[in-house]
Amino acid sequence: MVFWLDAVWAAGGTRVLNIVRICGIFIVLFIGGCVSNSSLENSAARIPMIDAHSQASKYVDLDDIIPLMNKAGVSRTLLSARRGLSWRKISSLALANPERITASIRTKGGIYRDNSPRYYRRLNKQLQDPTFGAMAEIMIYHAEKRKGDAPEIDVNFAEPQPAAAISAARSKGWPIILHIEFATLPGDEKRRAEFMGMFEEFLRLQNGYPVALTHLGQLRAKEAGRLLENHQNLHLITSRSNWYAINQAGQPWTEVVAVGGLVPAWRDLVLKYSGRFILGFDNVWREDWGWFYINQAHIWQKVLQSLPPAVAHAVAHRNAERLWGLPTANVP
Questions:
Q1: Domain-by-domain residue ranges, the chain?
Q2: Quick check: 79 and 101 in contact, CB under 8 A?
Q3: pLDDT tens for each residue of 207-226
Q4: Which of 12, 62, 71, 228 is the most exposed, fewest CB within 10 Å of its CB?
Q5: 296 phi, psi to nearest 5 deg
Q6: What angle do CA 218, 6, 295 make, to 5 degrees?
Q7: 187 exposed, middle or buried (CB, 10 Å; 0-12, 13-18, 19+)?
Q8: Nearest-CA neighbor of 276 among 330, 216, 220?
Q9: SS3 content of the chain, % helix, strand, coil (to 5)
Q10: What percent of the chain has pLDDT over 70?
């Protein structure tokens, strides 16, 4: 059945076909492609996981987050506010759970897109709160999603909004986290090539300072390999890059994990650049904080256990610990 699914996908079959999704979920959740709760609890090889990029809105009950992390086997989450949730509530959650939550400074939103003075006031207030330990993703290009619920954002690296957040991250010693969807950039190939040139120039101008792309920038393996080889400061966050998340999103996210495990081209890159991949899930919507999250975490736990231990621990938690200065993670 796994081979049949792979054949359908290789032939260009759409991944939103219900029969493929149902069969794939059945295989992973019930035949052992995914790690069940019981097998995780009984596994001596269980690996601590840090989620380097997730978000919560006013529609998420913050009291549910730690119990969900426990079910998912996630040791720590770098968490930011979005969509009506006050950043102060993220700060309070991190203050109450310092061993589990790292508060990330929010940048995104309408006031960021519009370059409103309110954006800079909010940014500075968060920077003055000692509870925060990370800068959340800084929007460069984000395609519209959910019919405007997540509108398009298109800003240049040098514009004041990202420049302020980038400068603040550097002043705190935090990695610069960028959101760029290379697969959905508007314009023709020439414009996309020009944008890639600007991105690479940005990487060079950081003089070795760490930069990470959420969702692996929607890059394909060949392009990611070229960038990783040429820019030693580039890191890739794995959010939304497993088949289970992609099937349900309808977005051109990069598939790093297929039903059968790591895609071979990506496995080669993970083994070669193990210090440059960072685990992340990017819970955004209310429905993300539930079984959607738990199942993805179990898929990733199985994938991590298929890797050499040093590589698995680097991707799962040690790279995040090094980049954000976090304490050593333990299995929850």
A1: 32-324
A2: yes
A3: 999 999 999 999 999 999 99
A4: 12
A5: -65, -40
A6: 65
A7: exposed
A8: 216
A9: 50, 15, 35
A10: 85
Residue 259 phi/psi, 5-degree rounding, is -55, -40
DSSP for 80-102 reads: EE-TT--HHHHHHHHHH-TTTEE
- Condensed to tens digits (0 to 9), the pLDDT of residues 58-83 reads 999 999 999 999 999 999 999 999 98
d(CA 175, CA 78): 12
Separation of alpha carbons 331 and 50, rounded Å: 10
- Answering whether pTM is above 0.70, one says yes
Q: Tell me which residue has tokens 């203050």.
A: 95
Task: Name which of 103, 109, 58 is nearest 79 in CA terms.
Answer: 103
Distance of CA 328 to the CA centre of its chain: 20
How far apart CA 113 and CA 141 sit, in angstroms, is 11
Q: What's the rounded Cα separation, in Å, for the pair 32 and 144?
A: 36
- What stretch of H or E contains 293? helix 291-305
Output the furthest CA–CA distance in the chain (Å, rounded): 55
Cα separation, 35 vs 185, in Å, equals 36
* Domain 32-324 class in CATH: alpha beta
Rounded Cα–Cα distance for residues 283 and 293 (Å): 7
